[in-house]
Design brief:
The structure holds 2 protein chains of 2 kinds. Chain A is an alpha/beta fold. In chain A, about 45% of the residues lie in helices and about 15% in strands. In chain A, the strands form 4 sheets. In chain A, strands 2-1-3-13-6 form a 5-stranded mixed β-sheet. A 4-stranded mixed β-sheet of chain A has the order 9-10-8-11. A two-stranded antiparallel sheet of chain A has the order 4-5. Chain B is an all-alpha fold. Classes of the chains: A alpha/beta, B mainly alpha. Chains A and B meet through α1 and α16 of A and α3, α12, α14 and α15 of B.
């Protein structure tokens, strides 16, 4: 077996080397070879049919500014993207511009990136989601999409339960009353998939702003997390309560979030789901089965007096500039073209993603998309994104134990505090 | 290598016999030629096995040593620094890794069941229960499915609101969370694995039965032995070699090819109860960005497999000696 592991390691190494080889071939031609030059972009999106018009618009915008520069997009498979990128970074060759997921994936690799503050100063107001692409006060990539956790509700289920779909619950007590009515109507109140342990992440970020006070929220994001504070503990108590009262779909620990929990919501078996804003599990994704006017978005119900519900979101994906690029200004211009309003409008409309551009008019995509876009201005970074991957992994297991009843909230908080402190 | 040298070596003196006599006659030139021929004959086996040896050394042993070496370095900020046994201490301290090792132990304990099932079914087919021809092909069918497909099928079947729980509900048994209850899930996955792979073992058992002396069975029947006694006193002793072989191959299968099922069916959950070392290694390397810790876990897994492998070789050798 070990041998098998070794063989696959050798195979992967071989593939990586060949991947890196192709990267060097497509690297920009040496400086001084003439007026025409070339920029290489690495991402995992440009190959998608839904992103075609976005790339086209961005290219056109860039060609207007630099007609003599050719741009080549290399679409890498996403599951190998960061491995391939790692090899390129090791050898300081490869793409001039590259796509990143916001947060840890980018912050782990800022050594290979150029701060682009001076080039994107004009875009700072127009685009949202910069925090996920910044480290130590410097910006390393420009956001393309936003990813966050709105609470969606199915207006049809609300109607069937005798509730007013125009008036979603604003406080936790109202939510519990509504959930009881939904349960009585034979539906689940929440569609929850916690097989991978992701459910708790969405719960924490989707509902957290209704529990923590603004000060506590900001402290959490800034890294000052007090796991023994009553409000943090309350989030996990509510997580357990909702399940104990039978408001989640049965078998949440064996239901996959991707995509079984979305299916439960879409098929009208559950009234609410804490979903995503972009890519999957969102307003457009649900639209396949639920007409846009049947999907609503509600702010987090208020649990604590003084809490101000806000949309939890971060920069989703964004383009950055490699440190080794020959002409940083040129590459930064390409990044700006890739985040131009026109290009992002195309991306939002075709790919079903909330784009980072706050000036895009989303009202045609139904009330849900409109509600999300209008909440962006007052939004805050998601609570779970601030945690390390190790802490998130533990939180997933702890959350499953809370649901099954094999761990108390107090013990769970002790474990979380220890893991968070260690990482 | 061991095999090839005796084959080539004895030939060399024989053929060199001719030139040897000519050398005594003083023909120096021919003597050099013969010595060269003798040397090339002597070197030939080494040259011939060289590719295989180099591949093993270069692509297996060398990476293995690198991997072990790598497990003594740090991750993240301590990347490349020698950290001694830190990674191993962390492993010993990680409840998740201990669960993974515990699950390996569980697999070993469940091994007799995994061998008994194809053994019993093969016995029934051999004893020509009604419909044995159909069963023979039906039983083998799952063996051609990939773990991903099998996992997906059972994900649907065993879902909390899936068909199996519906059937159980109609006969009054409450729903079982097959993939969500930490006390049940590991057994569910092993059960699915056995279902998916027992066809191969069944075929091996049937092959073993074809060598069974039917007069022994007839004699047992004449003496009025019950089915259970026939199996215990006649079938099992006659098939000891086959059983040993199936035991070894089933063990290897359980320890090496559960990853796909785990990945598709449980993702190591619920509550981390279905972690196996392989899955742990993959998570640490790919998700947690801890390649050095993953190397340490790989080294531990390698040592376990070494012990298990040597035990199996011993078992096979003993079974072979009985004949």
């Amino acid at each position: 077996m070990k041998q098998r592991t070794l063989w696959s390691a050798v195979l992967v190494a071989g593939l990586t080397v060949s991947g890196c080889g192709s990267a060097t071939r497509t690297a920009p031609s040496p400086a001084g070879s003439g007026t025409s030059s070339k920029l290489v972009v690495w991402d995992w999106k440009s190959g998608d049919a839904t992103a075609a018009s976005y790339i086209e618009k961005a290219k056109a915008d860039f060609a207007k500014k630099h007609p003599d520069v050719t741009v080549e997009f290399v679409a890498q498979p996403f599951d190998q993207y960061y491995t391939l990128l790692g090899t390129a970074i090791q050898s300081s060759t490869g793409p001039d511009v590259m796509l990143f997921n916001g947060g840890g994936q980018l912050r782990d690799r800022v050594d290979a990136l150029l701060p682009i503050d001076e080039y994107v100063a004009e875009d700072r107001q127009r685009l949202a989601g910069w925090d996920a692409f910044s480290k130590d006060g410097k910006v390393y990539a420009a956001p393309v999409t936003l990813q966050g956790h709105p609470i969606y509700y199915n207006k049809e289920v609300y109607e069937k339960a005798g509730l007013d779909p125009a008036k979603p619950p604003a406080t936790w007590d109202e939510l519990m009353t509504d959930c009881a009515a939904v349960k009585k109507a034979g539906k689940s109140c929440f569609a929850l998939g916690n097989k991978e342990g992701f459910g708790i992440q969405f719960f924490l970020s989707g509902l957290g702003s209704g529990v923590l006070t603004p000060q506590e929220y900001d402290d959490w994001i800034a890294g000052k997390r007090d796991w023994t504070s009553p409000h943090v503990k309350q989030i996990f108590t509510l997580w357990k309560d909702v399940n104990d009262k039978g408001y989640n779909n049965p078998g949440a620990n064996s239901t996959a979030m991707f995509n079984d929990s979305w299916a439960i919501f879409q098929s009208g078996k559950a009234a609410n789901v804490i979903g995503l804003m972009s890519d999957i599990g969102h307003w457009k994704d649900f639209g396949e089965f639920l007409p846009p006017d049947k999907i609503g978005v509600m702010p987090a119900p208020v649990v604590t007096d003084g809490a101000t519900p806000s949309l939890a979101y971060d920069g989703g994906i964004g383009y950055g500039v490699a440190k080794w690029t020959k002409d940083p200004k040129l590459a930064a211009d390409l990044v700006r073209s890739l985040t131009s309003t026109e290009a992002l409008t195309a991306f939002y409309a075709k790919a079903g993603a909330i784009a980072s551009d706050t000036t895009i008019d989303a009202s045609q995509s139904g009330p849900a998309a409109g509600a999300i876009v209008s909440a962006i201005k007052g939004g805050k970074p998601a609570l779970h994104v601030a945690l390390s991957s190790k802490t998130l992994d533990l939180m997933g297991r702890v959350s499953q134990k809370l649901l099954s009843g094999s761990l108390t909230v107090d013990k769970a908080m002790d474990q979380m505090a220890a893991a968070d402190k260690a990482s | 290598m061991k095999g090839s040298s005796p084959l080539v070596r004895p030939g060399a003196p024989g053929r060199a016999g001719g030139p040897d006599t000519t050398r005594q006659a003083g023909h120096r030139a021919t003597g050099t030629g013969s010595r060269r021929a003798a040397r090339s004959e002597r070197l030939a086996p080494y040259v011939l096995v060289a590719p295989a040896v180099l591949i093993i050394l270069g692509l297996r042993l060398y990476p293995l040593i690198l991997g072990v070496n790598f497990s003594f370095t740090g991750d993240g900020d301590r990347n490349g620094m020698v950290v001694g046994l830190d990674n191993y201490l962390e492993l010993a301290d990680d409840p998740l890794f201990r669960t993974a090792l515990g699950n390996v132990g569980l697999l070993v304990l469940l091994l007799p069941v995994a061998v008994a099932i194809p053994g019993l079914l093969a016995t029934f087919i051999y004893l020509r229960v009604p419909g044995h021809r159909v069963f023979r092909s039906v039983y083998f069918f799952p063996a051609v499915l990939s773990p991903v497909i099998v996992g997906s099928i059972f994900n649907l079947m065993l879902a909390f609101d899936g068909p199996l729980n519906t059937v159980l509900g109609t006969i009054g048994i409450g729903p079982v969370d097959w993939l969500g209850d930490p006390g049940v899930t590991m057994f569910t996955v092993v059960g699915v694995h056995v279902w998916a792979t027992f066809g191969m073992a069944l075929v091996v058992f049937l092959a073993g039965f074809s060598t069974l002396d039917s007069s022994l069975l007839d004699a047992a029947q004449m003496d009025g032995a019950s089915l259970a006694r026939t199996i215990w006193h006649v079938v099992i002793p006659s098939l000891s070699r086959t059983i040993a072989f199936v035991l070894v191959t089933t063990m290897i299968g359980m320890l090496t090819s559960m990853f796909g099922l785990l990945y598709v069916m449980t993702s190591g959950g619920p509550e981390g109860s279905t972690y196996l070392p392989e899955y742990y290694i993959w998570i640490q390397q790919g998700q947690m960005n801890r390649p050095a810790l993953a190397s340490a876990a790989s080294t531990v897994l390698f040592l376990i497999m070494l012990v298990v492998g040597l035990a199996q070789v011993g078992l096979l050798r003993r079974a072979g000696r009985q004949d």
